Amino acid sequence: MAKAPAFRCSECGWTSLKWVGRCGECQQWGTVEEAGAPVGRVRPAAVPAGRAARPITELEATDAPRWPTGIGEFDRVLGGGIVPGAVVLCSGEPGVGKSTLLLAVAARAAAAGRRVLYVSGEESLAQVRLRAERTGALEPQLYLASETDLATILGQLRDAEPELVIVDSVQTVANADNDGLAGGPSQVRDVAAALTRAAKSADVPLLLVGHVTKDGSVAGPRALEHLVDVVAHFDGDRQTALRFVRTSKNRFGPTDEVGCFEMTGDGIVEVPDPSGLFLSRSTTPLAGTCVTVALEGRRAIPVEVQALVVDASTPQPRRVVNGVDSSRVAMVLAVLERHTGLRLGGKDVYVSTVGGMRLTEPGADLAIALAIASAEHQVALPRRLAAVGEISLAGEIRAASSAKRRVAEARRLGYQRVIDEDVALVRNAIPEAISAGRRESAPVRQPVAVPEF
């Protein structure tokens, strides 16, 4: 008789007869745990009165009640506000601004008359008090606690009776009945499950701060993301002040919305209209620049792409990129050489975006190609020209996703000429844009005044 597996991976369910430190299926460390006792055959039970299955057409669709946080960009990401009893997991790189944003949310809720409990497991009460004073988040209805024990935190929830709970972070809280280390898979799963049960039983929204791994995913077992209702990710570069908030899971709203924020000395500030953050401030057209319209969620944002082409100083030409995908730039360079006649094999090519914006979508290919061609010919493109489109290896210009929305945003911002899929081939788009740039930059001859006699 075969022996039942005694150990199971908490991530993927892989089983083993003996304990191992690394899962043989998903290759995760520390996720193999002892399996519980085998469950016997379950007999069907009688369905209670009023809980029988009903046709979906007889059910009424009601929207979940929400209350706004007071921060419009955060409400946009959540789908209109916080739902009572919802559990929101906020993850991001260290120092990106997770605690600062959630402290601002707590202060806005406390200013509206709601009792808020902010539990910090990483900072002392004095440190949180100093940050709240710096960001203007001092409110009498905002209660602070510095705890890492799960039972004590549950006691704080029972005694304070808050209307909003924030725990920073879930990896620092530990259950005394669990022998695992704080932050381990079993501890994170137990802590998240206990806090979720407490929040939903009291119908109180809960905001959890989560750490991330080296690849940017949420640290801990995958069950953590399944337990919560919303998973929000904070993105941003430390070298720039811009921050984006996106949701990869949202049971109460869409997952294609993006919130835009800016980190300042006084805290984090929302940016409702980021249309001018990724454009240069030069008033005269410059060679090697082209504007495209990127799509962040449902939001169309104009972004300026800059390129520089110089003679190579080494036998191996350099290809340096910043904010764009290096593989797509290499593909665009190959298409330009093959279909437009530009000889860039012996040139150093530098491509960058303005404002630290990252362009990883194919819709920026045409703008990159026009910027490189403009830099090579040393001709500035027309001032009110934008480019949106994907370039194929055959030299064709394809429509980008949500092309109509991008073109409409470019028109709203005053770009009179938008090069997109209407120009089918890149070998036609490049000469047309360069010729238009030469005509616009050509000096206008003033009429000679004829003296009167």
Automatic annotation (TrEMBL):
Stated role: Plays a role in repairing double-strand DNA breaks, probably involving stabilizing or processing branched DNA or blocked replication forks.
SMART domains: AAA
Keywords: ATP-binding, DNA damage, DNA repair, DNA-binding, Hydrolase, Metal-binding, Nucleotide-binding, Stress response, Zinc, Zinc-finger
Record-annotated RecA family profile domain positions: 63-212
PANTHER family: DNA REPAIR PROTEIN RADA, DNA REPAIR PROTEIN RADA-LIKE PROTEIN
UniProt family annotation: Belongs to the RecA family. RadA subfamily.
Gene3D superfamilies, per the entry: 3.30.230.10, P-loop containing nucleotide triphosphate hydrolases (3.40.50.300)
MF terms in GO: ATP binding; ATP-dependent DNA damage sensor activity; damaged DNA binding; hydrolase activity; zinc ion binding
One Gene Ontology biological process: recombinational repair
Region (Lon-protease-like): 348-453
This protein's record includes keyword Metal-binding: yes
Name this polypeptide is given: DNA repair protein RadA
Binding site for ATP: 92-99
Top-level division of the source organism's lineage: Bacteria
